[in-house]
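Database export, one record per block. Field names are fixed; values are copied verbatim from the stored entry.
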Amino acid sequence: MKTEILKVLRESGGYVSGQQLCDSFGVSRTAVWKVIDQLKKEGYEIEAVRNKGYRLIESPDVMGQAELESLIDTRWAGKTVVYAKETDSTNIQAKALGEKGAVHGTLVVADRQTAGKGRRGRRWTSPPGTSIYMTILLKPQFLPSKAPMLTLVMALSVAEGIMGETGLPAQIKWPNDIVVNGKKVCGILTEMSAEIDYINYVVTGAGVNVNADSFPEDIARTATSLYIEGGVKLRRAQLAASIVERYEKNYEMFMETEDLSRLKDPYNRLLVNCRKEVRILEPGNEYEAVASGINDTGELVVMTADGKEKAIYAGEVSVRGVYGYV
């Protein structure tokens, strides 16, 4: 009921009478008052005026279940929210839920991770109170070979969500980083449980640096936050909701063709290295080329120095800018 009352208060834009809330949810005034009191203790500023009712004045930067559920406006993505104040990793928890039969579109969110990880098992720093740590669980019917493209679907969705909420120039560094002004604000990790020709489930996680004001010395050169770049503190739940809403739209476009043909153009418009020189780092081989964008299956198409076109599959390959991170 807390989610529903919060949503009514948020959408009303004015006062909502206690009796109206009682009638809507079939509960007593005491039950309504207890929910309002709980919301106040969580940091929501709610005004109560006799003969008028309750009015939501301001929402805090919280990532609670009720806050997320009251903001996410989708058909299936994030309709089920599993929230934890602290967890090992939202990807780990999403996979555990997948094993237990959780529904397609389940969203796992945490305020802090103790074992967050990035691509190739790298550690992802996950302090509390400043960032978004979220994973969406999917149960698609396509072949396992198509699952890696979902990383790019999420990348596009995160970049669009950031631009929509902040106006900052978010770009994509192929295949799984989001950058603002040349520094990383988000990493994305997709993992899968599958048989040879069948997917049990896929989880795609995103860690977004939102309100952090500094970073450890070892990553400060390449990492940043939306607050550092924009100078404004953001409500993380609102940004998370925007990302989930865009993900649902982009995922459905992906499912129409089971490739990136419909998302390729908007993705390439945000690709930070598009039409620029890049350094390709393959195991035992390093060379420079010019990136021209992704193809329908999410590979990065580059033109090598000898004039040959080559499609790079993410796998064990890294791509860097010739003069730095991007």
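Remark 1: The chain is about 30% helix and 25% strand.
Remark 2: The chain has three domains: 2-58, 65-270, 277-321.
End of record.
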